[in-house]
Amino acid sequence: MSDISKEQVKHVAHLARLAITDEEVEKMTKQLGDIINYAELLNELDTDNVEPTTHVLDLKNVMRKDEPKKWIEKEDALKNAPDQQDGQFRVPSILE
Amino acid sequence: MALFDYTLKELQEKLHNKEITVTDLVDASFARIHEVDEEVQAFLTLNEEAARAKAKKLDEQVDTSVNLLFGIPAGIKDNMVTKGLRTTCASKLLDNFEDPLYNATVVDRLDKENTVTIGKLNMDEFAMGSSNENSGYTPTRNPWNTDYVPGGSSGGSAAAVAANEVFFSLGSDTGGSIRQPAAFCGVVGLKPTYGLVSRFGLVAFASSLDQIGPITRTVADNAHLLQAIAGYDQMDSTSANIDVPNYSEAMKENVKGLKIAVPKEYLQEGVNSEVKEAVLQALKVYEDLGATWEEVSLPHSKYAVAAYYLLSSSEASANLARFDGVRYGVRSENATNMLDMFKLSRSEGFGDEVKRRIMLGTFALSSGYYDAYYKKAQKVRTLIKNDFEKVFEDYDVIIGPTTPTPAFKVGEKIDDPLTMYANDILTIPVNLAGVPGMSIPCGFSSEGLPIGLQIIAKHFDESTIYRTAYAFEQATDHHKKRPTLGGAK
Questions:
Q1: A17 touching B, CB under 8 A?
Q2: pLDDT class for B414, splitting at 50, 70, 90?
Q3: CA torsion, ordered B160, B453, B249, B5, to nearest 10 deg
């Protein structure tokens, strides 16, 4: 049995850039704990000599020539943005 | 016969003979949507004005058309970007994403065939779910009985085809998201081999598993659709550079001598007796057609769900990091600094299941847990993949149920993530192995809900799936039944 603590849940939420309420921490601690306990099932298997599969096909990195080409105009890139100013994405202050 | 009873091939003949127009087809789609979609909730966004204009334009050039998809009304799952047409992934976070800048490759390829996009289809938010109840909007309902779920995550895509709202749709499948809703809604759904269909413009969920595929009413229609969307795309670095065979030709070969493997794990406890009976009946049909079947074992099947949730959630936690309220999507109005803007925008925009999976994935990838969870799951994935390879040394196809049960009731499983996840136990191994799998209708439960037969083949052997599925469809008439939704056939 491996459990996840409330502190861990809060830490993971911060890493995932999620704000969670105390109520959500309670619920998430229980639910994540259940899922992680279920995943312990995998430890029944001896995988010491098994290679991990990251990709099912024998794919190689695809390279192309590094040539500039036109794709998206700046105005287009900005048109779905929640906020913009002077042709740039606008965000709240980064420095305190 | 109503327009929706015809195959794509028959419709094309009628267009050529000027018995019908593209406008008739598009009118029929919208008329049906206006009639039943308040009940079904398959669509999130309609493309009515543009679709009608395109139909008019296509009607002026019918004589020169040569392909089978010309003028056919289509529905697109809302996780594929459509230029200038709202794309939300059924997430409140993308509620305002009204004007995507480009088309997904599959959308461009359909455009080239002159299909008509009718609208964007409902789904579980960011394709995470098995019932469409995780839609950030209204959940889609099963057209056969609206008290039941249509399955997920491509629930809208399957329901729209089953309810005769469109002639075909595109879905995406990460752990069963095309096949499971196809089974629940009584339609034909294919998850192609990983790498066969470009994912460029598909909003990524789990990149090592995601694949786009067609949902149709018949096997022949499905083969035509795959022909149009399959093949190498330089915009997708995981796209396989292979020669695409002629599926419609391959489909016609009979199944005499076909060697079928039936995994005993796929008919074990947990599989509903009516589902099991329907699959055994289907195997009888194959025997009558000259095929043979034997029981085999995929011994690591029971580990697939656990491995899948660790891998897919880990990949999702990385992929969904891009939703930060800066370049597109909804930004929280309650933040005063940058970090809070990220956190609040994401927390207010994402639904519970998406947050749960991001959290699970972030945990599995975090320092100190990576080897125990993520890497372990990748190793188990190898074992599952090897299971399939071994069976395919001796057999042409694997056949079993698509799902352990027919559709379940709305609300029945939503509060228990693990029970919901178990629903995908027969579809997930296929994604982990990267092989192609299809669901076709093979019967009905005593409650009148469709049952799906799953046909699995080796990498890039969609031809054998189509051949196997087509032979069954020709010999049976399950695919001819339609739901009686809206009082009209």
A1: yes
A2: confident
A3: -40
Question: Is B224 a residue whose pLDDT tops 60?
Answer: yes
Cα–Cα dist A5/B455, whole Å: 43
Residues contacting B43, CB < 8 A, separation 6+: B33, B37, B75, B118, B119, B120, B121, B122, B156, B160, B165
- Alpha carbon of A23 to those of A28, A29, A89, B117, B461: distances in Å? 9, 10, 34, 43, 49
Q: In B51-150, where do the E strands start and end?
A: 73-77, 116-121
CB contact under 8 A, A16 and B359: yes
Mind telling me how many Å the CA of B345 is from chain A's nearest CA?
Answer: 9
B242 reaches A (C-beta below 8 A)? no
Query: What percent of chain A has pLDDT above 90?
Result: 75
Whole-number pLDDT of residue B488: 42
Average pLDDT, chain A: 91
3-state helix, strand, coil in chain A (%, to 5): 40, 5, 55
* Interatomic CA distance for residues B80 and B72, integer angstroms: 19
Q: Is B297 a catalytic residue?
A: no
More confident residue, B416 or B46: B46
Residue A8 to chain B, least CA–CA distance (Å) = 9
> Cα-Cα-Cα-Cα dihedral of B470, B471, B477, B483, to 10°?
-20
- Count of beta carbons in the 10 Å neighbourhood of residue B334: 12
Following DSSP, what letter does each residue of B4-56 receive, concatenated?
A: GGS-HHHHHHHHHTTSS-HHHHHHHHHHHHHHHHHHH--EEEE-HHHHHHHHH
**Domains of chain B from N-terminus onward:** 3-253+462-480 (3.90.1300.10)
Nearest Cα to B76, choosing from B99, B46, B98, B54? B46
**B446 noted as active-site residue:** no
Coil/strand/helix, residue A25: helix
Please name which of B322, B310, B447, B408 lies closest in space to residue B366, comparing C-alpha atoms: B310
Q: Which amino acid is at B21?
A: T
Class of domain A6-44: mainly alpha
Average pLDDT of the residues in B128-134: 97
DSSP letter string over B211-274?
Answer: EEEEEESSHHHHHHHHHHHBS--TT-TT----PPP-HHHHHTS--TT-EEEEEGGGGSTTS-HH
Mean pLDDT of B434-452: 97
Under 8 Å between Cβ of B138 and B164:
no
Could you write out the DSSP letters of every residue in B304-319?
HHHHHHHHHHHHHHHH
What phi and psi values does residue B424 have, to the nearest 5 degrees? Answer: -100, 15
Model-level pTM greater than 0.90?
Answer: yes
**What ipTM was predicted for this assembly?**
0.95
Strands B168-173 and B73-77: parallel
Q: How confident is the model at residue A2 (pLDDT cuts 50, 70, 90)?
A: low
Q: How far apart are CA B307 and CA A43, in angstroms?
A: 11
Question: What pLDDT, on a 0 to 100 scale, did the predictor assign at position A3?
Answer: 78
